[in-house]
Amino acid sequence: MARYGELFLKSEPVKRHFIGMLLRNIRKALAAAGKECRYETPRGRILIHGDDPDKTAAIVARIFGIIDVSTCRRTSTDLEEISSVALTLASSRLKAGMSFAVRAKRQYKTGLNSQELGTLVGSHIYDNIPGLEVDLDTPDYEIFVEIRDIGGLVYDNRIPGPGGLPWGTQGRALVLLSAGIDSPVASWLSMKRGCEITHLYLDAGRWAGADVTAAAIDNHRNLSPWCSGNPLSLVIACSEPLFDRMSEHKVPPRYRCVLCKRFMFKVAGLLMAHEGALAVVTGENLGQVASQTLANLGVVDQAATIPVIRPLITFDKEETVTIARRIGTFKTHPGDLACRAVPKMPATAAVLEEVLAIEQQIGMDELAARACTGLRFVTALNGNITEEHT
Ligand code: ATP
Ligand code: MG
């Protein structure tokens, strides 16, 4: 049984549409794992019938829109049957000396109320397993019983899901994905809010550390299980000529980072229409590095032709790292990711007029257009790279 959260607040037609998307995503993810299941959608719940419930629950617990998942025993609404199934389940987990609580819910207001149902099932367990204690506040073990129009449900686990909105309900965003820790988290957070994603990585060639491209592709691959069953695209554009040009023209090194970020936005702007994307997402974070001061973010934004979303803008590094570990994108041995173009003292407050003059001088727009002509495409599906072409 999967529960969904925020979808509940939507109007009926929107809710129906979103639940349809959620079901489609669950189906695709389970089909990708070779599972054929049967589905029911009683109010507020998605019931999934099939073999191997633990594996099924683990897959569904990674789907955006899902609050939590439980593996359940399905019963009739008969109270004796419910009590007996609850006792069987509890017997396998409870031992003398342990405390427990029954959490009961009834969809209808007639007959026993929820509290009476809980007491009934609790007494049956208490009377049949010796040495137990009831503790409704901090029990060692919790068991849940629900009586709904579709029958009874008995379960004792709640596997947390990611929450958010179903993948695909908010349109597509182009995510600037790097080899680092931040942008994969930004990508995940955008997916969590329902965006379909295309990743864009700028390959700086000999200006980038030896392991940068492999690490960026790895981030891409590691994010793909979060939209299981949907192929995830990565577009790779080459930014090496930009750095060569800045070097030839002796552009003040302190402006390189801001120019590099503006270049990324220009390339993203040129690819938006092709990718059908409505916004660009970055892992930028206020004050993290010199190019991410408020003043510089403004100068960078001026190069964007589409809305820029920065999910991590107010996060502390530790908050980002915590999410990265949880979603499987954190790396302990990242390799050589050092950018060879980063100056000792990057400008913290670039002057827009100077930046525009430099761009005129180095032919920035022509460089961005050229970067869009020799693209590479890498598709990831369920944690594997499935296709690469130019
Ligand atoms: P991250 O911020 O993801 O840890 P980073 O620290 O290497 O990576 P920053 O210099 O902090 O990168 O860049 C800020 C943001 O710019 C990144 O979060 C990412 O969205 C984008 N970005 C940086 N480098 C690249 C790149 N080579 N290709 C695409 N996007 C990039
Ligand atoms: Mg960063």
Structure description:
The protein has helices at residues 12-32, 53-60, 79-91, 114-128, 182-192, 212-223, 240-248, 256-275, 294-301, 317-327, 352-362, 364-371, and strands at 2-4, 38-40, 45-49, 66-69, 73-75, 99-106, 133-134, 141-148, 151-155, 159-160, 172-176, 196-203, 232-238, 277-281, 308-309, 376-381, 384-389. By secondary structure, it is α/β, with parallel strands linked by helices. It folds into three domains: 2-71, THUMP domain-like (Alpha-Beta Plaits, 2-Layer Sandwich), CATH 3.30.70.1510; 74-156, VC0802-like; 172-389, 3-Layer(aba) Sandwich (Rossmann fold), CATH 3.40.50. The site of adenosine-5'-triphosphate (ATP) has 16 residues, from helix 5 and strand 12.
Provide tags for this entry.
seven-stranded mixed sheet, VC0802-like, 12 helices, alpha/beta, single chain, five-stranded antiparallel sheet, 3 domains, elongated, Alpha-Beta Plaits, binds magnesium ion, binds adenosine-5'-triphosphate, Rossmann fold, 390 residues
Largest sheet geometry? 7 strands, mixed
Alpha-beta content class: alpha/beta
Poorly predicted runs are none
Major β-sheet strand ordering:
15-14-11-12-13-16-17
CATH architectural grouping of the largest domain:
3-Layer(aba) Sandwich
